[in-house]
């Protein structure tokens, strides 16, 4: 499977779209907002730029895409007014893989820009948007061109399914029954990918530039720990049931593995220190319930059950990968079963996603 070609969140605004099923990810952005605010405030005060170039990496399509950017701009505007500085020009780069639904984002920009200029008031500078399709495991921007980079819930995706997973049969990710060689293959792929990511971003950020990254991760040092693998184990249960009923071919199931790695804080830190490009300001862990939905915020979900919401959230994320492997005829049935399995487990266990957030700046003797 070519991850760059296949991986994308469900586009559009329909029932199974990412736009309609990304409240958990939005909650994570809100939870980690104080870290982003601190980083952008320090960056502004350190560099006092006349124009500010920011990028969101793995922006996807939906309300979260512009949510982060608008929060960052609001913080800077407030600060510049407080300090009595002149207005800035904001350059915003929205990055994702080429299959992302950039069209829906672009269509929403005129309204968003109108709203932003109302909120920012007279005298604010322009916000100029660009889409940057491409993998963040390669160069995306010119050298020394960016002030600030943000990424949430994207960097756990690997550039490829690791090699050497032949003996992970019955599983679709790292699991309690995965042999050590599988866990090692996943970790080594994460190390290779994240080190390339850091090198590329170090080339693109300006001196004094900053970066806040949130991974879907884990607290435990055990990569097959339930806190990061369970959600995929439950999906494997649904798929295995369908294999045993002859609805899915066994060899298709055996050769399917999710290209993700959910790192611990120490694994993230270790790669950053090895690279030597960045100094770490913060490294924090937070948690959000699988079914942490605010029905006040989105009344339509108040009538649906937790299993439905969580299964739909996972469907918006994983459907294109599953369709690529198994075809689209089985998808509704997979998620009908997954919903039931999730409902069952949520009622018995405290199920959470763990978030690992790191805030850092480009290091070097030249930092102001
Ligand atoms: C779960 S979504 C998160 C979207 C958004 N940041 C949020 O918090 O709601 C992950 C996004 O990362 C993107 N992504 C994964 N691997 C990528 C890569 N190598 N380069 C760029 N984007 C990538 C996916 O296409 C997807 O849109």
Automatic annotation (TrEMBL):
The keyword Metal-binding applies. Signal peptide: none annotated. InterPro entries: MeTrfase_7, MeTrfase_capping, SAM-dependent_MTases_sf. It holds the Pfam family Methyltransf_7. It comes from the Eukaryota. One of its GO terms (biological process) is methylation. GO terms for molecular function: metal ion binding; methyltransferase activity. Keywords: Magnesium, Metal-binding, Methyltransferase, Transferase. This is Uncharacterized protein.
